[in-house]
Amino acid sequence: MPVKHGFIHIADVLWPATHDPQLDWVSGLISLEDWLVAYTGPKYSRWAWNTAKDAYYLSVAFKYDKHRTLFLLRWA
Hints:
Layout: E1 9-14, H1 24-39, E2 47-50, E3 57-62, H2 65-75
Antiparallel strand pairs: 1-3, 2-3
């Protein structure tokens, strides 16, 4: 369960595709988290995982709308 946060700018994206279906969720999370830290900043300071509305999506909440927009341009 994601940590409660006060971030209001939400972005939902499909899981990133990988070549290994057994590790797709692991690779997807690592890839997304590495990108988020590099381009938006520290977890829980600028962004946090959010509860997705669908099992095939990942949800991220952002402190600033500009980071949400950048994320959507990269991953949507």
